[in-house]
């Protein structure tokens, strides 16, 4: 079963200096608008077969030549525990938004990890110069729907979680990570689902899902990766190149067209035109090391999470100056004017669904977060 969503992605302000021209589901489930997931797999029968009383002597009993049935795979934690861990992380994130000072920082560190923590910290800094309270559906308090749990006892371990803020139509996909058995799960990435996208189901949560990370995946992960239409690293390399400005030639596009790429590419062209008399503009995208996580779906295919770092570079022309915006000055408070060059850094979280065998990958989720700015 696949659930469809019709939502509108509102991307964040592309550049800080843009205007400076002077429920539970035993099967893991498919994402559903109600926040629950439809069970796709009935509980398996448990227990061993037993025989009744017999008058046969031991020598009369048949000798079994069959191999014992291997135990069913298990998730790294139970579905109930996974829901508790997801709720804890999201609650901590909400506290980081509602609190201030050290209390907010502590809550943020409790909620996020890796590139996610970097993005959340950037959001908090930019929120200080925006009017009103932060308005981000990623952070709305909701009950988490755990879609997938990584298989086996190895770490780092992962959860795929979906939330649907009650006052919005925009579902959010979260990738959560625990680095060791004694550590809590924290949010590594959160991305808004794109218009008209859907995701397939995962293996039953109690059995866990195969997860591939890094350059040396295990045997099960290697098998899962071989079945995909495109390797995740190759997909993300081509996608990063496609997003760059000035535009680069991409001979083979293993991904379908999407709203996020169209928005980023159009924004870069508009930015270059807006500052043409004052500066030369360029934009690059690179995959952050260690950010690619591939989670196998039921029956083949996979969901691929990744983080890109985007650099918007401005080289100021002789005799020209650019006045930075307040959002830019959050990261460079002493920067009153820019005369030589400027760089704005943004984290882009992406979620692709990659088919088994043949076909193109589809971007199903994306979000962007301003995390840095500097100038000379």
Explain this structure:
This protein is of the alpha+beta class. It is 23% helix and 23% strand. The protein is built from seven helices and ten strands. Strand 2 and strand 3 form a beta hairpin. The longest helix has 20 residues. The radius of gyration is 24 Å and the shape is globular. The N terminus is likely disordered.
Topology of this protein?
Blueprint (H helix, E strand, L loop, with lengths): L78 H20 L2 H11 L2 H14 L17 E5 L7 E7 L8 E7 L7 E8 L17 E3 L5 H8 L5 H12 L15 H16 L4 E9 L5 E4 L5 E15 L9 H6 L9 E14 L7 E14 L1
Antiparallel strand pairs: 1-2, 2-3, 3-4, 4-10, 5-7, 6-8, 7-8, 8-9, 9-10
Helix pairs in contact: 1-2
Biggest β-sheet: count, sense, barrel?
A: 10 strands, antiparallel
SS element count, helices:
7
DSSP strand content = 15-25%
Q: What distance lies between the first and last C-alpha atoms, to the nearest angstrom?
A: 54 Å
What's the overall geometry?
A: globular
Oligomerization: single chain
Low-pLDDT stretches: 1-59
Compute the number of strand runs: 10
Our Rg estimate from Cα atoms comes to 24 Å
- Which structural class do you get from the secondary structure elements? alpha+beta
């Amino acid at each position: 079963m696949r659930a469809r969503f019709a939502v509108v992605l509102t991307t964040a302000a592309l550049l800080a200096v843009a205007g400076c021209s002077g429920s539970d589901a035993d099967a893991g489930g498919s994402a559903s608008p109600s926040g629950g997931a439809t069970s796709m797999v009935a509980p398996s029968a448990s227990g061993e077969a037993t025989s009744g009383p017999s008058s046969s002597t031991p020598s009369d009993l048949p000798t079994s030549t069959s191999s014992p049935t291997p135990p069913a795979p298990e998730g790294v934690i139970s579905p109930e525990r996974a829901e508790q861990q997801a709720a804890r992380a999201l609650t901590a994130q909400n506290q980081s938004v509602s609190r201030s000072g050290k209390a907010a920082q502590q809550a943020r560190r409790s909620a996020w990890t890796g590139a996610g923590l970097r993005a959340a910290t950037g959001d908090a800094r930019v929120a200080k110069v925006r009017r009103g309270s932060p308005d981000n559906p990623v952070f709305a308090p909701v009950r988490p729907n755990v879609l997938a749990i990584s298989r086996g006892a190895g770490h780092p371990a992962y959860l795929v979680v979906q939330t649907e803020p009650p006052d919005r139509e925009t579902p959010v996909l979260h990738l959560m990570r625990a680095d060791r058995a004694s550590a809590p799960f924290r949010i590594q990435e959160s991305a808004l689902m794109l218009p008209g996208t859907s995701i397939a189901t995962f293996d039953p949560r109690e059995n866990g899902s195969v997860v591939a990370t890094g350059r040396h995946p295990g045997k099960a992960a290697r098998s899962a990766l071989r079945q995909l239409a495109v390797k995740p690293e190759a997909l993300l390399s081509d996608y990063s190149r496609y997003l760059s400005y000035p535009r680069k030639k991409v001979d083979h596009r293993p991904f379908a067209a999407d709203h996020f790429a169209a928005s980023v590419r159009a924004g870069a062209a508009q930015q270059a035109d807006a500052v043409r008399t004052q500066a030369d503009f360029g934009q690059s995208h690179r995959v952050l090391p260690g950010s690619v996580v591939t989670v196998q779906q039921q029956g083949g295919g996979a969901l691929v999470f990744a983080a890109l770092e985007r650099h918007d570079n401005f080289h100021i022309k002789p005799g020209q100056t650019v006045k930075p915006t307040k959002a830019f000055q959050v990261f460079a408070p002493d920067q009153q004017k820019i005369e030589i060059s400027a760089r704005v850094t943004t984290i882009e979280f992406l979620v692709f669904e990659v088919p088994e065998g043949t076909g193109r990958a589809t971007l199903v989720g994306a979000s962007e977060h301003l995390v840095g700015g500097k100038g000379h």
